[in-house]
Amino acid sequence: MKKLDKKYFTFIFAALMSILMSGVISFIIISYEEGFSNGFFMKFLGAWKFSFPFSFVVAQFVTPLVRKFTMLIVKTG
Known about the structure:
Strand content: under 5%
Number of domains: 1
Radius of gyration: 16 Å
Order of helices and strands: HH
Largest sheet: none
Number of strands: 0
Number of helices: 2
């Protein structure tokens, strides 16, 4: 499999992280608030569709900052 250039790391990382995190959080919140009732799956997909763009934008900005803060805490090399 051909790999992408490392300049795309932040974008790809943010996309994958936000897909997973927004999906998990949407699932947890909908199941807590509504339970597993009729229409659960559609409510979950609606919440996920709404939350993903926000989480993606936030992840784009937060990923480089978190990486820098982590480098201050963790030994490298």
